[in-house]
Specification:
The complex is a heterodimer of chains A (152) and B (502). Chain A is built from 6 helices and 7 strands, in the order αβαβββααβαβαβ. Chain A has 152 residues and is of the alpha/beta class. The two termini of chain B are 84 Å apart.
């Protein structure tokens, strides 16, 4: 009998924890953060460097070239990326990238269309820098948040 | 109504209108979308760059007197004119500049799309990372000038498209008229051709190749039709002439057969009658010689002999008509003296109020035949003529001339003598004219005429190889024309015939 009561309390506690996590996840669903792998040498990047990075300019940290990854796993990310990270319109960004690639020889930022691919890229390369929703990386030990880019 | 809709012009116009009705809205929507995107691009790009620039400045500054510097920076932002709202949220404390700013809703959401909200303010917020904390910069850009520009551009686009549509419709009307006009003209010309007016030429001046070819083919068809029509009309005319000739020949053949039949019959009777009259005349003359002179018997016998002579002359006339009388040896003789002799004889018996005129254009004309028979012809014709005169008198004109190739289908070409007898008598009706050559046909009372005069004339002329025609109308007189082969012409023809045979 006591065993049964303890079992129910345990289930109730688990349900409560899940609800709390879900509420937290919902609360953090509109916070965009800049992330790097946990073993990355990058500790912080100011907004100007972030813009340079995602416009294709070469950014070196401790002698290592950072590799930007444009996360396109969510349609809502695109306008936030354009307005908060590169601060220009889509066509201006496209012209800027084309200009850098063709005239300056810079590299075009890699574009990834799924969250899993973004994470795989992060895990594979410690010099990778990308942006993700906070709730996607809040409890990921392999990923480190270095900056809040935008919050709803 | 259906016929009206099916015209070429209306169909062309309908097609143009349908195309415009479908394309003009699409064109308007497409152009306005391009215009809107262009203006949005021109608005959003500087707004984002500018707000990012301000955020970078706030992020780069030191911590000393940050709040005052932030307020001054917000004032400078508001002074640009494009920013109507500016604030910094520092740990739930809101910092504003000294300049008046728009009363914005608390924590307005970011606008990621131009004009998406109806407040005409484009809000951009940036998280500024300070050394000690994070703050939020929120700027509001005025969308109304750009929206006004977009509205004005849309109006211009609309006016331009409407003008384009009006011009297109006007061009379509003109083009449809250009295309349809030659077609309508061709149609009218084709209708005239269909009504039988083949003179109209299907010549249209059009720069459209299809119309030119259609015109060319229709004109070619019309020319063929004209040719066929002319050929048919010619054939019909020839057929009518041929039919008239056939009817004329048939009529003349019937007449000749009738004359021949009557002549044969009359000739047979005359022969028998002549045989009967011969002993009567012979024995009455013998008896007259034996009868005492001055006696009643001699007187009676004299009357019998005279009657027998008259009967014999009648028989001779009938035989002449039937050409069974033995003619004298034909000889070439001049017509003028014979005619003058006959006319001289006539003048003695014709009333004084009847003028007899004779005109000879060629004194040397001669024919082959018996002069006494031609003498009889003139006497008979002139006798008929003066008997047709009214009591007030009239004129008989006899004319003699030489002709070549007379307009008579029954005569072969050659030299002929024309003898004309015209009178101013009462003329004849058509029904009388058709029977004048019939033996014993007469319009006079019984006992006054024998009906053999013109029959004998017809027989004499025919036996001489000639032709006699009579034209007459009531109250217009009568004209008799006699064509006889000229003696010189006959000789010439004989020579030619002999040469041809050789």
């Amino acid at each position: 009998m006591e065993c049964g009561v303890l079992l129910n309390m345990r289930r109730a506690l688990q349900l409560f924890i899940l609800l709390c996590l879900a509420a937290q996840a919902c609360a953090a669903s509109h916070t965009l953060v800049l992330v790097v792998p946990v073993d990355s040498k990058v500790s912080d990047l100011d907004s100007l460097t972030v813009r340079k990075l995602f416009l294709g300019l070469p950014v070196l940290v401790d002698g290592s070239l950072l590799h930007p990854v444009r996360n396109r796993s969510d349609a809502e990310l695109d306008p936030i990326f354009l307005q908060q990270i590169v601060a220009m319109s889509q066509s201006a960004y496209d012209r800027q990238i084309l200009n850098g690639v063709n005239r300056q020889g810079w590299l075009r930022p890699v574009e990834v269309s799924t969250t899993s691919r973004v994470l795989d890229t992060l895990y594979a390369d410690p010099n990778t820098v990308t942006f993700m929703w906070l709730h996607e990386v809040a409890h990921n030990p392999k990923v480190r948040v270095i900056r809040v880019l935008w919050g709803d | 109504m259906g016929r009206l809709i099916n015209t070429l012009r209306l169909r062309l116009m309908s097609v143009v209108l349908v195309i415009h009705a479908a394309l003009v809205p699409l064109l308007y929507l497409g152009v306005t979308a391009i215009v809107t995107d262009g203006y949005a691009e021109l608005f959003v790009n500087p707004a984002r760059s500018y707000s990012q620039l301000v955020a970078d400045e706030l992020e780069a500054g030191g911590a000393d007197d940050f709040e005052r510097r932030a307020a001054e920076r917000l004032d400078s932002v508001l002074l640009t004119g494009q920013v109507v709202f500016a604030e910094i949220i520092d740990d739930k404390r809101r910092i504003h500049g000294s300049l008046p700013s728009l009363t914005a809703p608390v924590d307005p959401p970011d606008d990621f799309q131009f004009g998406a909200h109806g407040d005409e303010v484009y809000y951009i917020s940036h998280t500024v990372k300070r050394p000690d904390r994070s703050i939020v910069l929120r700027l509001g850009f005025d969308e109304s000038p750009t929206l006004a520009q977009i509205r004005e551009a849309k109006q211009r686009v609309l006016i331009a498209i409407l003008a384009f549509t009006a011009a297109s419709i006007a061009v379509a009307v003109w083009l449809s008229a250009v295309i349809a006009r030659p077609m309508v003209r061709l149609q009218e010309a084709a209708k005239r051709v269909a009504r039988g007016d083949f003179r109209v030429q299907l010549t249209m001046s059009s720069s459209i190749r299809e119309v030119q070819e259609l015109n060319h083919h229709l004109e070619h068809m019309r020319q063929k039709l004209v040719g066929t029509n002319e050929r048919l009309e010619r054939e019909m005319g020839e057929r009518e002439v041929s039919e008239a000739k056939r009817l004329d020949l048939e009529r003349r053949l019937l007449h000749r057969e009738r004359i021949a039949t009557i002549g044969t019959l009359a000739g047979g009777i005359a022969h028998e009658f002549n045989n009967i009259m011969t002993p009567i005349l012979l024995y009455s003359q013998v008896a007259l010689q034996d009868a005492p002179a001055g006696s009643a018997l001699a007187t009676d016998l004299t009357r019998i002999v005279a009657a027998a002579h008259r009967a014999r002359r009648l028989v001779t006339g009938v035989l002449t008509f039937s050409r069974q009388m033995d003619l004298q040896q034909p000889a070439v003789f001049a017509l003028r003296p014979t005619i003058e002799e006959a006319l001289g004889l006539l003048r003695a018996i014709v009333p004084a109020n009847i003028e007899i005129a004779f005109e000879s254009q060629d004194d040397d004309v001669a024919v082959v035949g018996d002069p006494s028979l031609l003498h009889q012809v003139v006497i008979n014709l002139c006798t008929n003529a003066y008997q047709a005169m009214s009591p007030s008198g009239g004129r008989i004109a006899v004319k003699l001339s030489a002709v070549r190739n007379p307009p008579k289908s029954q005569l072969p070409p050659g030299h002929y003598v024309l003898l004309e007898v015209n009178d101013t008598g009462h003329g004849m009706e058509e029904s009388v004219l058709a029977h004048i050559f019939d033996p014993f046909f007469t319009t006079r009372d019984v006992g006054e005429g024998t009906g053999l005069g013109l029959s004998i004339v017809h027989g004499i002329i025919t036996s001489m190889g000639g032709v006699i025609t009579v034209e007459s109308a009531v109250e217009s007189g009568t004209m008799v024309q006699i064509y006889l082969p000229a003696a010189a012409g006959r000789a010439e023809q004989d020579i030619l015939s002999a040469g041809g045979a050789a």
